[in-house]
Amino acid sequence: MNNLQSLLKNEEKAVFALRSLYGKYGYLPYKMSKFEEYDLYVRNKDFLVSDSVITFNDTNGRLLALKPDVTLSIVKNYVDEPGVTQKLFYNENVYRVSARTHTYKEIMQTGLECIGDIDLYDISEVVNLSLESLSEIGGEFVLDLSHLGVLSALLDETSGDEAFKKKIMHCISEKNRHELSLVCEENAIDSRVAAMLVAFVSVYGTPAAVIEKLRKMCINEKMKTAVDELESICALLKNSRYGNKINLDFSIVNDMNYYNGIVFKGFINGIPESVLSGGQYDKLMKKMGKKARAIGFAVYLDSLEQTEAKKQTDVDTLVLYSEKSDLNQLSQFITDKISTGESVSAQRKIPQKLRYKTLIDFDREENAK
């Protein structure tokens, strides 16, 4: 099995590991078509990571799209069952513009959705599974967690319109205190509320330390309720295996027309952007005519290609042989090398792009004996 694992790309290993992980928690596999009606994405374009969608005409004239997202398809096909919670996971290819290459890519996306009559346990379980997912991918990681109810309660005190709130959210997501102050000043926001919004940008750290600060900032009952819920969820996660990997960071914001409550992003050392993103999307459920609540996350496996590219070598040893080489001896030589744990490539000529640690001329090696 170890030999098999060493041959798999990072993203392939992650798929197998995550599938096993989610199955252990009772999440069932979900399969879907590669296409959806384009209208589904037009109606919910702000929910998408990228609003560029590949479209084509079906034989009956309907405009279809290669799916750029999985969650919308799951929600579309979900049937409300009062008191019941559906737990699903998926491994699906999605088709969208890559943030790194700015070209269309087929991207393997893995994730899970918990939909239905969800409670605090369900929310904490999903967040815990996001931590476990980051661990399975490997390397040093951190999960940044936020609660949109806290920010929403602060924004309620501004009486600003949607355009103003979007500007504020953008400033907070960029941690731009200066621009945030200017926006508040231009919109004549009460100085006390403006000061709290500016201070909000710097709220970051361990759950215990941040929640203590938030308690002092509670400006209304809505904010207090959101902080209470956040504290309860953090308490459930405190004793989990990776509870110490959580930081509260209120620059983690998602579109409030779709998301509410807990939102989060996962980061792995060495990769500049988040490799995991998720949160509660009760508002999306309501927008699509569903009564249930929902929370989920996606792991962006294309980000793992960066760790693959950073490998300094493709193989440990490159062995060069010729037409004159004794193939029985060569075969035994390669077998002995591999048995020590090395990866070996036997070639008659050095491949142009192959990276290796050690080069061995097999004929010279044998002649020297």
Set out the fold topology:
Elements: H1 2-7, H2 10-24, E1 28-29, E2 35-37, H3 38-43, E3 55-57, E4 63-66, H4 71-77, E5 85-97, E6 104-116, H5 120-137, E7 141-147, H6 148-156, H7 162-173, H8 177-186, H9 191-201, E8 204-205, H10 207-217, H11 221-238, E9 246-249, E10 260-268, E11 276-280, H12 282-287, E12 293-300, H13 305-309, E13 315-320, H14 327-339, E14 344-347, E15 356-361, H15 362-367
Parallel strand pairs: 1-5, 7-9, 13-14, 13-15
Antiparallel strand pairs: 2-4, 3-4, 5-6, 6-12, 7-10, 8-9, 10-11, 11-12
Helix pairs in contact: 2-5, 5-11, 6-11, 7-8, 8-9, 10-11
Brief characterization of the structure:
With about 375 residues, the protein is α/β, with parallel strands linked by helices.
